[in-house]
Amino acid sequence: MSAGTAPKRRLDPIVPVLAVVAVGVLTAALHHPQAGMYVAAAGLAAGAVLRILLSPRNAGSLVVRRKQIDVIVLGGLALGLAILAAVTPFPSG
């Protein structure tokens, strides 16, 4: 790196994952609970896919434990949330 150039900062992959989950939670809170739960589940699933595809160095804050454990936890949470969204009876209107 030469003098006067700032190092390039990469976006931590957890930022878009958390953004999608936050949009899902906000959607669920604003009277669209089933759609919001599906969006949050999609965000968690995206986190699992990113954890599979990215190297530990590039995965940033998605790295908590071993890759297998991280993927199982994120995928399990996504699947559980999607199942809850599918089977929970929400009032219409």
Write structural notes for this entry.
This protein has 93 residues and is mostly helical. It has one domain. Helix content is 67%, strand content 0%. It has four helices and no strands. The protein has helices at 14-29, 33-53, 56-59, 67-87. Helix 1 runs antiparallel to helix 2. The longest helix is centred in the middle third of the chain and has 21 residues, at 33-53. The protein is flat. The protein starts with 13 loop residues before the first helix and ends in a 6-residue tail after the last helix. The mean pLDDT is 90.
Termini separation comes to 58 Å
Q: Strand content of the residues, in percent?
A: under 5%
- Largest sheet report: none
Q: Please tell me the total number of domains.
A: 1
For the secondary structure, the number of strands is 0
Range of helix content: 55-70%
Write a compact overview of the structure shown:
This protein is mainly α. The chain has one domain. It has helices at 14-29, 33-53, 56-59, 67-87.
